[in-house]
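Below is a filled-in request sheet from our internal design queue. Each sheet records the structural input a requester submitted and the sequence that came back. We keep these sheets so that new team members can see what a complete request looks like end to end.

REQUESTER: design group, bay 2
PRIORITY: normal
MODE: inverse folding
CHAIN LENGTH: 249
BACKBONE (tokenized):
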């Protein structure tokens, strides 16, 4: 499979823009790149490319959060999330994905509008046991949503806004959780022999632009304080919600 000049240009543009957003926030490559990639590539190829590129982008900026990863705390999200992925995959044939995405989109829009209106939501006052149980439930839900529709990020990202964590601590959760879920999903696809024709060429073309975009985004990330980072993340979640609603009509 070969790509013409226009197709290569769109692949590079999507990779560069998606890498930038991922480098800035720790998530969002697929949301940003997929609309451009779908103009020149098939949905199966775009889905596989988005998963692999997200892993590459997050690996490029992992050094930004390495010192802020509290493995014991994050494991309460990640381990249930990994357990939820196959359940979401099993449920895939039983659920109307269009309506599912519509519902998630509406919830995200309402949440983000309220978040902007309130400036900052209050931290939930949970005991350590209640907080741990809630974290596990959020992680499991994110894993199910990842296996079901590739939407592993919104649930733990929105939940983190209730936490009294710093910018770096929140990003550490985003990156470790999404990297774990996406890497698991990609390995599952590859092991099943389901990678579409042209994937290798498309990935080779997009890697340099993804890396450059991630580096540019990470440079801007260093200039954000906690408050600005929260607002950028909320804005991206709002865009995610709107995009999901539009794609569901």
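RETURNED SEQUENCE:
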């Amino acid at each position: 499979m070969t790509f013409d000049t226009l197709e290569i240009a769109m692949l590079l543009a999507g990779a560069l823009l998606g890498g930038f957003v991922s480098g800035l926030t720790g998530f969002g490559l697929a949301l940003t790149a997929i609309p451009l990639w779908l103009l020149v590539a098939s949905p199966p190829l775009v889905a596989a490319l988005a998963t692999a590129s997200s892993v590459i982008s997050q690996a490029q900026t992992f050094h930004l959060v390495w010192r802020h990863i509290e493995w014991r705390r994050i494991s309460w999200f990640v381990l249930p999330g990994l357990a939820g992925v196959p359940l979401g995959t099993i449920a895939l044939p039983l659920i109307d994905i269009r309506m599912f995405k519509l519902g998630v989109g509406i919830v995200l829009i309402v949440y983000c509008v309220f978040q902007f209106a309130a400036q900052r939501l209050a931290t939930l006052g949970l005991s350590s046991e209640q907080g741990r149980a809630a974290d596990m439930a959020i992680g499991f839900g994110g894993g199910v949503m990842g296996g079901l529709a590739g939407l592993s990020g919104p649930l733990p990202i929105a939940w983190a806004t209730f936490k009294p964590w710093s910018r770096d601590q929140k990003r550490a959760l985003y990156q470790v959780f999404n990297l774990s879920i996406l890497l698991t999903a990609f390995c599952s696809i590859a092991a099943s022999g389901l990678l579409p024709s042209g994937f290798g060429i498309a990935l080779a073309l997009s890697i340099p632009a993804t890396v450059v975009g991630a580096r540019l985004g990470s440079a801007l990330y260093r200039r954000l304080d906690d408050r600005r980072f929260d607002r950028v993340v909320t804005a991206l979640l709002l865009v995610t919600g709107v995009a999901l609603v539009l794609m569901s009509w």
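SHEET NOTES:
- Residues 5-248 form one domain.
- Residues 81 and 143 are 4 Å apart (CA to CA).
FILED BY: M.R.
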